[in-house]
Every structure is written in C-alpha cells, then in structure tokens.
Amino acid sequence: MPEAVTRSAATRSALLASLDPLLREWLPRQRWFAGKGRPVTGFTLVAATELLPREGTLGLLHLLVRAHQPDVPAQGAVAHPADCYQLLLGVREALPPRLAPALIGRPEEGPLAGRTVYEALHDPRATAVLLEAIRTRARVGRLRFEGHADHTIRAGLVPRLVTAEQSNSSVVYGDTFILKVLRRIVPGTNPDLELPLMLAREGCPRVPAPAGWLLADLDGPEDSYVLGVLQPYVRGATDGWELALHMLAKGEDFTSEARALGRATAEVHTALARALPTVTLGHVQIGLSAEGMSERLDAAAQAVPALRPYVPGLRSAFRALTGLAAEGQTWTAQRIHGDLHLGQCLRSPDGAWSLIDFEGEPSKSLAERRMPQPVVRDIAGMLRSFDYAAHSAVPSAPAWATACRAAYCRGYAEVSGRDPRTEPVLLRAYETDKAVYEVVYEARHRPDWLPVPMAAIRRLSAPADAGTDAGADATP
Hints:
This protein has 476 residues and is an alpha+beta fold. It is built from 12 helices and 18 strands. Strands 6-7-12-13-10-9-8 form a 7-stranded antiparallel β-sheet, covered by helices on one side.
C-alpha cells in the first residue's frame, strides 16, 4: 500500500469544490442516500485519503463527505441535516466501456480538472486495493485496515461488486470473502462489527465471523468509525427472500424452512444474551416504549394520509401493552439483530441458516440500535417479512404467510423454550410498530408496495378479540 499523501487545506478545499456540482447530482440518486426528498445545500470534507495517487493511470480517493440538507425532513424522511457518507472515487483519463455505468462526471476545475471521476467499487482494480490493505493490515493516513488472526486472506482474489440494491455496498472476493462497505457513517461502536465478533467468541455458528474490517481514526484510535466489515462468503447460499419467493412461485411448502429459521433466530438470541448484559423492563420502561410507538404512529399518519383512518385501532395495541405493564408485567430486554427479515438470512447448500447484517434499522441512531430490546422486535420483523413474501405472489397467498409465521414461532420455541405467540399483546404492539414504519418507507421509496403494509395495518387495527393480534394461529 502507498503511503498517505498529505495535502494542504487549500488543496482539500479545491478538491471538494471541484467535486461539489457532480456530487449534488449523483449522490441523491444512490439507493443508500438517506436524505431523499430534500435538496443538498452543500458539502463538508471530513477526511480525504489517496489510496492510489491520482497522477497515475488509476487514481483512488477515499472520501468521508458530510452532505448538508434542510433541517425539516420532507415526507417523513429519516436522514439528519448533515449525514456523513463514505465514497470511494476512481480517477482516470477516460472510462473503459465496462465502467460507463459508474460514471460520476468530469470536474471542470480544481485538482481533478479534465479527469474522469467514477464510483470505484465497480472497478476490480480499485476494489482489489481494499482487500490487499486488509490482508496486509495497512494504515494509510487516518484509515486503518485490520485482519482477524483466525482468518488467512490469500492475495489475488478476484473482486466483483454485488449489484443488488442495498442500503450499503458489498464486494465479493473470489467466492471466499464478502466486504460490506458502509455508506452512512456515524461515530461509535457499530453493531455490524461488534455483534458478529461477540457471537464468534461465543462459538455461535449462525453468524459468519468477521475476517477483517476497515476503520477511520478521525478523533484518534480511541474513537474509531467503522467503515467496512469483511466476512466469509457463504458459497452457493441463497438469501431467504429469494428462496421464499422461488418456493412460493412453485407452490412448494416453506414451513420447514421457516421453522429452521425460527430455531436459528433463537440460537442467535440465546448467544447474545450470554455474551452481553440483559435488563428487565418494568412499567416505566414499557410505558416509554409504548409512548414512542404512539409518537411514531402520529408522525406516520401526518406523512401518509391513508394511515389516518386506522390510527385509533392501531393505538389500542400500544395502550394494551401499557396496561399490562401497569399490572406488573415485566419483560427481558437484550441485544438483538434489530432489522431482521428474510433478506437478512442466508441458507447454505447444506440447509443451514445464517443471520447477517447486524447494522440495525438505518433510520435509528447508533445509540438506539445498540440498546437492549425485547427479542420480539426481531420476531415481529420476520413475521412481517413472511407477509411481504406472500403479498408478492400472484395471486396473493395469505394462508402461506400464516403457515410460515406459525412454523417460525414453533421453531423459535423449540430452542428458546418460549413461544412468542404466548404473549400476543407484546407481539401485536411490536408488529404494529413495524408495519407503521413500513407504511412510511413504502410511501417514500416504493409507492407500488404500499398496499402490502396497508393490508397489515387493516388487520392489526381490528379489535384484538377478533383474533388478529398476532396475525397467525395463536396455538403454540
């Protein structure tokens, strides 16, 4: 790896000025840009590192850029006024045709004037630099590349970008490793590295153990920012969402897979409870949680008018939870996945399930994502995912979803000793909160999908005694 190139503040300022008009157009179009619906009013360069000097045939710039936007989100946006994004920019005289889709633009002035700037994750020559840096545990400027002692990384593994739309970006290296490049960067301990490391120490086989990671020491090594995580690539694996849709389209039963997924989820929860402290939630904590759910419901109803007729029924789910807490009911909270759904699960060719992507729900702050929570939050997310898969079929298959939801809960109970359906009030509240989140998300990003969470909203807003509180057979 080359030594970091030190540039003056004036040069850094000129670099950002030259990229500003290009990034204002390109950045909001990216799937992982959190501030959609609001204009970008300016940028601040947090850090700039040359991984390859731009004077060569291929330059490689690593940037951390803060995008400034109006304070008030439009249509329920969840981004902050100045989110920080990680960019890996390639610099060439001209792009070969294979890299044309990665084009960002040609700066008209400044240190990059006349060169072509593009998204470097599309370029195998550029992404090979990242793996080599992790393999050799390089330090370049404020960037620190680390490798786990238990993993040997061979040189020369061929990289390829995962093209599926994600909230981050991923590069696969020779069907051996996969590097998740985080896009929206926040300070502090990132659960996407923290929890898999903890689970590896616990010997939990359901989560691939990190092989390496990329950090930025912006405020010194004691306050590092996690920028990327390298994990073993599960060769031949199918993600749960694709597998569910495939089996659903063929009319094949998915309940055995759903049951196995429930067992895998419970194994991960059990390991996390061993590795990290648990807490007991009493009346005050549950009341605050239910109040937060109710506030999110009000905000969602303001953003999506179609939700408003169902607000009273939905709010009853949160009131019922508060009522149980007032009677003395308590629940255990612990670290959880935080954004669990079928797409966060991988089935290997031998039938084993793994859970991936422990970053948590992107709309929440890092502090919120690292808070202990009832495991039912993860369970509710998975139940909603079965519902999404069923509504994606033509025609819709609600009976398929009901069967899968019941099988998942049975599998969870086989490992944990507790069936989630035995606490219908708690399950209904968390599933309602998740469905409300989905309504806002789909209204903003995928309006054609809005009928899916709205179907759940109609079910969940019905009186609990109508048998709709858990959305599945309530018999354990």
